[in-house]
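If you are new to this repository, start here. Below is one unmodified record pulled from the training split, so you can see the exact layout before writing a loader.
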Amino acid sequence: MSDAASNTSLFGIHGMALELRSQRMGLLTSNIANASTPGYKARDIDFNAALQSEMAGASTDKATRRATLYRVPVMPSLDGNTVDMSTEQVAFSENAMGYSTALSFISGRVNTITRAIKGE
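And here is the target side for that same chain:
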């Protein structure tokens, strides 16, 4: 059994979701860090598309690459930067909540397995 298959059977969809949320967090952080960089194009991951791709058998990296899109600016700046801080902050907060939720499910699963092994 491959690592991906064993992780899926052990943690369900939450293991995949945690990996994707982590990669999305890095991308959103990069957008925020480059908010004043002239010509920087904000990107985001279509989480649902990436998760569907990974569930269909693609690796996390491949699923993420396929689902990474340039953000369409609400109000483009004169220097070509497409980062909108309010959009990035909302996306970051939403993603952080999803990450925390997935981590809670995985933690609960590990605790259940640990108790079962100990015979509690």
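Two things worth knowing about this chain: Strands lie at 43-45, 68-70. The chain has one domain: 3-118.
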